[in-house]
Amino acid sequence: MIRIAVVEDDENYRNELGSFLQKLESENNYKFKISYFTDGDEIAGGYKAVYDIILMDIEMQFMDGMSTAEYIRKFDSNVIIIFITNTPQYAMKGYQVDALDYCLKPLSYFAFSQRMIKAIAKLDNKKEKTIAISLRNGIRKIELSKLLYIEVLNHDLIYHTIDEKIESRGTMREMEEALAKEHFFRCSKCYLVNLEHVNKVDDLSVTVGSDILQISRLKKKQFMDELNKFMNE
């Protein structure tokens, strides 16, 4: 299932994009789930990082496509953005928000389908495992390969990534269950560690990235067993 958002304020173009997607779906045996938005502020408000591809009109009444894309990139670095525009000079600024491509109006099915096939191929090549976490103003995806460890502090979870720390509400038990099939291990009540980023183990401490975390005495043997298993894989 490929999840696509169409953000277009012109009803005729919105309908045309929908019909193009249906045709592309039937010709290539794709399976799309399409969501429609009539302005940038509609998708930006409470943005949820659940889309694979966003088809974004640039000139819209309340929130233009470039501003919308800049906002979305704060929460979602993975989604593929393709701009739909009347004027190519606007679309050329797309590198600022890591846009993949653009389609010029009036739309041509052939040009559109070629760009979509390119986007879907890229999607297949970069299927990085992610986890979605809830924030106050939306949902954000975190790439598991960049997640060092999760820390519980009071009633909050702190996601320590290679680049930053992200705070979210939740429970460690929920995260243990969500990551049960991944290379994560709870080395104490406070820490759920990505074994990929373990650099050193000393007695009852483990170095993850550059941080030194405590290992529970009761968890030490099982932690070492899981770490050795991961390293041997």
What do you see in this structure?
With 233 residues, the chain is of the alpha/beta class. 31% of the residues lie in helices and 33% in strands. The protein has helices at residues 11-28, 40-44, 65-73, 88-91, 109-125, 172-178, 220-232, and strands at 2-7, 32-37, 53-57, 80-85, 101-104, 130-135, 138-143, 147-153, 156-161, 165-169, 184-186, 191-194, 198-202, 205-208, 211-214. The chain has a five-stranded parallel sheet. A hairpin with a 2-residue loop joins strand 14 (205-208) and strand 15. The longest helix has 18 residues, at 11-28. The model has no long low-confidence stretch (mean pLDDT 90).
Amount of beta strand: 25-35%
Q: Spatial order of the strands in the main sheet?
A: 2-1-3-4-5
| Average residue pLDDT | 90
Count up the helices.
7
> How much is the radius of gyration in Å?
21 Å
Number of strands: 15
Largest sheet: 5 strands, parallel
Distance between the termini: 30 Å
Q: How would you describe the shape?
A: elongated
- Portion of residues in helices? 25-40%
Low-confidence regions: none
Structural classification? alpha/beta
Order of helices and strands: EHEHEHEHEHEEEEEHEEEEEH
SSE map:
Layout: E1 2-7, H1 11-28, E2 32-37, H2 40-44, E3 53-57, H3 65-73, E4 80-85, H4 88-91, E5 101-104, H5 109-125, E6 130-135, E7 138-143, E8 147-153, E9 156-161, E10 165-169, H6 172-178, E11 184-186, E12 191-194, E13 198-202, E14 205-208, E15 211-214, H7 220-232
Parallel strand pairs: 1-2, 1-3, 3-4, 4-5
Antiparallel strand pairs: 6-7, 8-9, 8-12, 9-10, 11-12, 13-14, 14-15
